[in-house]
Structures are given as structure tokens and as C-alpha cells.
Amino acid sequence: MANERWQKDWSLFIDLIQQCLNAAVDEEQLAIQFAGKSIKWEGRLEEKHLDAEPAPSVTIAMQEKNITVGESSAVLDFLTVFVADDAIQLWREIETGSIVEFTAQLRNKNAILPPIFVLEVGEGQAAVMFGLSGGRLVGIAEENLAK
């Protein structure tokens, strides 16, 4: 199956999520559409939690996008990506602050938490969270090599 454009473009992915929310698509329908899909995006490595048990992870800053959820709004500007066990060492070698290209997979729909979930967190504020696992470093941007 060919990759959909959003799978390689964070901005298009968020635009698609916004379209789904505008159409009142619920979390179950989001899971059907996105569960198990692979992504390949670019962001800035902010934090590494590679010794965390039971699930090592990295935090990646993404291009800021705003999204509306009903009467609330959310700012989407980072992801937590759970790292594949065999990819931990490669993540260790990359300095925080580096622009990285990475792959991951949205959770399967049968996971404890859905691949995409929306929370009302306060008056006028919402959070949209993505379950990403199997995170692998694909490369670092050339601008990092000039440091």
C-alpha cells in the first residue's frame, strides 16, 4: 500500500486531524483510519528518556500547529515517541537540539490507549495526543553536521 502524503508531512497530518474533528469523527473512527500506520517526519530532538522502564522514549519538537476541538483549542508542538529497543543506542548518539528525521508507528486500535485521543483539559483548552511507538532515527539534518 502506498504511503499517504500525511505519513511524510506533519503539517498535512494535523490538517487531516482537524478535518476529521470538524466532521465530528470520534476516537473509534480515528483509530480505524490511522491505527498501525507508519510515519516519517522531521523535528528537533528535545529530550531523551532512553533508560525509562518499561518504555524508553524521546521528545521531539515539531512545527507548531493549532487545532480546534469543539469550543476548545490545542497547540500541537511536540511528540513523545516510544523508541524501538534495537534503536536506543542510535538515539543515544544524537545530541539534543539536533534536527532529526524519524519513523514511528501509530498505535494499533486494540492498544490500551488509542492511536489518537482528544482530551478537554480546561476551559477553552484541549489536548490531542498521538500514540507513537517503534521510533527509529532515520537521519539528522545537514545543518547539524555544520556545528
What does this structure look like?
With 147 residues, the chain is α+β, with helices and mostly antiparallel strands. The chain is 20% helix and 46% strand. It is built from 4 helices and 7 strands. A hairpin with a 2-residue loop joins strand 5 and strand 6 (125-130). The chain is globular, with a radius of gyration of 15 Å. It starts with 9 loop residues before the first helix and ends with a helix.
What is the helix/strand order? HHEEEHEEEEH
Give the low-pLDDT segments.
Answer: none
What fraction strand?
A: over 45%
| Average pLDDT figure | 90
The helicity comes to 10-25%
Number of strands: 7
Spatially, the strands of the biggest sheet line up as 1-2-3-7-4
Biggest sheet statistics: 5 strands, mixed, barrel
| Rg result | 15 Å
Shape: globular
What is the rounded distance between the termini? 39 Å
Q: How would you classify the helix and strand content by structural class?
A: alpha+beta
Number of helices: 4
